[in-house]
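INSTRUCTION: Work out how this chain folds

Fields: amino acid sequence; protein backbone structure tokens

Chain under study, with its fold:
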Amino acid sequence: MASTSNSVTLTRHRQTPTDVVRGVSARVRRSADGTLALTFVLEADLGKVRIPPPRPSQLVHGLWEHTCFEAFVAVDGACAYHEFNFAPSNEWMMYAFRDYRDVLAFPDEMSTPDMTVRRAADQLDLDVALRLDTMSATHTTAPLRLALAAVVEEEPGRLSYWALRHPAGKPDFHHADAFALTIEAPRLDSIPDPR
């Protein structure tokens, strides 16, 4: 089966300076089996970054107040979208929205994402795999628009905000301008003729 893959660089919001973070990037892979795989890469002096300790995988509100990575997923052309927060602690959260910041009830059918965190002296990688069919059947076959972002908390609590694209004004990952990556639906490879 074919897959769609992209590598992107996130930029820092100009109103949130940092001397600690060198860069944030992401790799996105969408498979024909209905999986959206994301890898976030934080390059920084990790000794000066507040990284939450490992915990059991569980739903936690307010992860964006500390170091976390975020993915916003919308079907291309739709106003509705999902927000995912992934912390290096293995905690996560998902919110569903009808439109810009108009939150729906939490969908109870969402499966726990597969997350892996790898850490070195100056790099932290977070891999996550999401099943698109748990958002809706349409998510598995339609083109998707993505907004990818990160919040990095430094000692002594200063935050920097990173995104594919920042709208004018204060940081706002929900803004339509932030949905800067379109991922086409993968096609099944053609089956070769055995003759």
